[in-house]
Amino acid sequence: xxxxxxxxxxxxxxxxxxxxxxxxxxxxxxxxxxxxxxxxxxxxxxxxxxxxxxxxxxxxxxxxxxxxxxxxxxxxxxxxxxxxxxxxxxxxxxxxxxxxxxxxxxxxxxxxxxxxxxxxxxxxxxxxxxxxxxxxxxxxxxxxxxxxxxxxxxxxxxxxxxxxxxxxxxxxxxxxxxxxxxxxxxxxxxxxxxxxxxxxxxxxxxxxxxxxxxxxxxxxxxxxxxxxxxxxxxxxxxxxxxxxxxxxxxxxxxxxxxxxxxxxxxxxxxxxxxxxxxxxxxxxxxxxxxxxxxxxxxxxxxxxxxxxxxxxxxxxxxxxxxxxx
Length: 325
Prior knowledge:
With 325 residues, this protein is of the alpha+beta class.
């Protein structure tokens, strides 16, 4: 009888030991991470999600068993939300990754208490790639993975730092390529204008349609909204041309600029509209705007409609920038 009791106790102890081992192994598996090198790709793997840095394609791929993805059209429109298991491909240019620790503040507590979990957020936009490649469409994408254990998030942060450096290089290169392309187009437009002026001789104005086409070629876009005014000799007095994504061309007082409405000021001054925009010399330390007077001669209702439209596009663009889009 005593031996049977002993064997029973040993059996219970052994079963408890096996159960404890299985539990510990399961907990370790939930927190286990690794970085795997694949052809043309570096992958971070964790329980419930993985992220691939696809160097040749200049994009990342995110697979998550539980996440949410918000896509907002760059041209405006309703935001589309997706939940659940997802696969998403995001451009590296302009990519931002944020890892935030969760905390809660219960009633009566002076400071928030860590939850032991983090939220990983990927923010990406097609705007820069579309601008460089002169494409339309595209989205701002925000993918969020919640309830990531702190040890897993810490391992991912090291991987995210590598992705950030890689994405920043791609972003800088695209911006430089775009700036060089714009410079070449502006030089070509100036050369074409000089050639036409030489052919027409002194005193003859450049054809308005030709002038506008040259400006649009230099800017790299044709606006969705535009207006122009000429003097009695056919010379352009002022010109405005802008897109729904915030890009704008302005000409007034014999000056022309191709820029965006980001941070712009729009002021009604009597029978005209003053638009202040950032030029190549604008900096955070010296935030002086280049100002252009346009829309002289238009009826008040039309000027008001232009101002409302410009302010709406400006506010949308500033809001995207503030949110890191």
